[in-house]
Specification:
Layout lengths: L27 E3 L6 E7 L2 E5 L10
Length: 60
């Protein structure tokens, strides 16, 4: 989630999130403030969303 400032914000707690310079779309990162797992949905502009919960049948 981004507000008009252009700084990526955590969709859970609205804290600023540092995006690594080598980040990729669909990469998972953590919010330093609340610990929420976030997924990078887009890099231009940067969009973050809560990462999906792991399902029991993933990887089977």
């Amino acid at each position: 989630m981004i507000r008009n400032t252009g700084i990526p914000l955590c969709p859970e707690c609205d804290a600023e999130v540092d995006i690594p310079s080598d980040a990729m779309v669909n990469e998972l990162i953590s919010c330093a403030e609340c610990g929420a797992e976030l997924e990078i949905m887009s890099l231009d502009p940067i969009e973050l969303d809560l990462a999906p919960e792991v399902e029991e049948d993933w990887g089977e």
